[in-house]
Write a structure and sequence with these properties.
The chain is of the alpha+beta class. 41% of the residues lie in helices and 18% in strands. This is Transcriptional regulator, IclR family.
């Protein structure tokens, strides 16, 4: 899913700032260095305009240029990202690590971004599994696709037109999805009670083989309850 497609500009927004921020978004999505031409094409601006964007971002250390004149995300992003939900992440980390090791699967804490999307706030990989799912924090997905979003919806009042899976998740306390976000990767997630500052959260695991889904469901529910308790 492209985050660019999800932002609708209106007259109260800055088109120039939007395009400049898109440079950071496309580099993050790409996961590797890009040339100025590739950046210009991805953002949809002239090469000269893209050059102004990257020079400004370089000055703030949000981008860096290598010897081949390709651009990478810069170290200036680290102090900007570090304070985001610091208390929540500090409290949740040991609980997610315990969950990941207990079920030998990648665990994640996901937050509702807006009415249509959820974002992975934390991703913790198991230390005792030879094979596991890997993805980066920050991933944005549709709220009605994948167990993380379905779990968050299940913690909210029922609404017309919602998926049957949301109703099922309300009944059993956790949501299950099959190959909805990434092919061959399944998910089991539970809503976190007492959303922090109104933010809706879910805890889940991503696996290649669901195996004992009841065991996974019980594990994510227990972790969700603990996170709700320590952060509520």
């Amino acid at each position: 899913m492209s985050e660019a497609d999800e932002v609708v500009l209106d007259s109260s927004m800055s088109k120039t700032l939007h395009s400049g921020l898109r440079v950071l978004e496309v580099l993050s999505a790409r996961g590797s260095a890009m040339t100025i031409t590739e950046i210009a094409d991805a953002v949809g601006v002239h090469r000269t305009v893209a050059h102004r964007f990257v020079r400004t971002l370089e000055a703030h250390r949000l981008l860096r240029r290598d010897r081949a004149k390709r651009f990478h995300l810069g170290t200036g992003l680290v102090p900007l990202a570090e304070p985001v939900e610091r208390d929540l992440r500090t409290a949740a980390l040991p609980l997610l690590e315990e969950l990941a090791d207990e079920v030998s699967a990648t665990a994640h804490l996901v937050v509702q971004e807006d009415s249509r999307h959820v974002r992975a706030l934390m991703v913790v990989e198991p230390r005792n599994a030879s094979v596991h799912v890997a993805f980066r924090p920050g991933q944005l997905d549709a709220i009605d696709r994948g167990s993380a979003g379905l779990a968050i919806l299940s913690g909210q009042p029922a609404r017309a037109g919602e998926r049957d899976e949301v109703h099922t998740a309300r009944e059993r306390g956790y949501a299950v999805s099959f190959s909805e976000v990434v092919p061959s990767v399944h998910g089991v997630s539970a809503p976190v009670p007492n959303g922090r500052d109104g933010a809706q959260l879910s805890v889940g695991v991503s696996v290649f083989d669901l195996g004992d889904v009841d065991r996974l469901g019980a594990a994510v529910r227990a972790t969700a309850q603990l996170i709700g308790h320590v952060t509520g």
